[in-house]
Structures are given as C-alpha cells and as structure tokens.
Amino acid sequence: MTSHGTDGFFVSFEGGDGVGKTTQSRLLGEWLARVTGRDVVRTREPGGTDLGLVLRREILHGQDMDPRTEALLYAADRAHHVASLVRPALERGDVVITDRYLDSSVAYQAGGRTLSVDEVENLSLWATDGLLPDATVLLDLDPTVGASRLTAAPDRLERAGDEFHRRTRQAYLDRAAQDPARWVVLDASGTVDSIHAAVCAAVAERLGLTGVPLPGEPLSDEVG
Fold this sequence. Notes:
This protein is 51% helix and 12% strand. By secondary structure, it is α/β, with parallel strands linked by helices. The protein has a single domain (9-207), classed as Rossmann fold, CATH 3.40.50. Helix 2 runs antiparallel to helix 3, helix 3 packs parallel to helix 5 (117-127) and helix 4 (102-112) packs across helix 7 (162-178). It is globular, with a radius of gyration of 17 Å. It starts with 8 loop residues before the first strand and ends in a 17-residue tail after the last helix.
C-alpha cells in the first residue's frame, strides 16, 4: 500500500519549461510498464482532461489575469483532474505519471507570482483532498537554457521574464530540500539516456521496487 492509501504508484515531474519533462515522463512510463507489468497513465497539468484542455487554453493563451485568479483556475483544473482521472487510476492499481502537479502551483504562483506559499499549497491540498505523489522528480536547469530549447511561440508564463523564472526555480529547489523522501533533484543538462537512468534509479527507490532491472539491464522473470 502506498502513502496515499491506494495500490497504484503516483509520480510527478516538475521543473521549468524546456527541461525535458515530457520526454522523461514518457521514458519512465515505458520502463515502469516493463518492470512492474502495470498499466501506465501519463497525464499533465493543466490539460489532462477535456475540461483541463479548456482551462489550459485560457490560463496559458487567454487574456491576462491577476495571480489569484490564475491560482484558482489551476486549482480547479487539479481538483477535476484528480477526481476524474488520477485517483480512479491509482485505485485500479495503475501507475500515474503527471507532467506537473501541485508543486508547480507553489513554485509558480507563490515563488514566481509571490503569493503566499501556505495559501497556494493549502488551496491545492484542499482541491486534491490531500493527494501527494509517491515520488516527485525535479529536472533542474538554468531557466535561460530551458528557454533556449523552446520552439513554439511562448505562452503567458514563458513570457513572465527572467526574474520570475529565477524565483520559480529557487522555489522548486527550496521545496525539494524540505522533503527529500519524496523529491529527487536531477541536473537536466545531461544526456537523455543518463537522465533517464538516474530517474529510474531514484523512482525505484522511492516506490520500493527493490531488485528491478534498471535501463540497460536484462528484464528478469519476476516483476512487481
């Protein structure tokens, strides 16, 4: 039984834009499916549900909004996301991997927008009925390097400025330092393969997957 009281595994990826969360979440999902035999649900915030796609469009590409409105819209997306997708999958015993979760709100709305950390966190905890991941992977990278990797037109958050993104990065690092049992911080400037190997090793430890073959090792007959 995991820390959130279900049979499933819940993993979140965090970090600034351009750090490789999408690639690494996909690779981790493929690896966990192989070594555990479980179904893997990959999702994201905002936008992991049909309603979430509407909210994502308005938050990231709609009209400008004040920080409190932004925080409330993220929380609304998160509440629906957890109730309709994440928690049911965990109760089935699936692996859920999400690209961003409530730590993004604390980093961006409290760290970047300078709202109250406690207020933003408590809002998300209320929205999710206290659901936290078993493991959170922070892919850490200088925000200017991450921005240079982006190819699409920037959204509202990506246009927020260098100082905003520096505050957000520091908020992530501070948060990770406070809860090392859940968080793992990895340098996102490495190769895709080296980061993937480090992610798998750290996640296996936090999920209690002892003895599973890591990337590059042969798959044994017994998985779990």
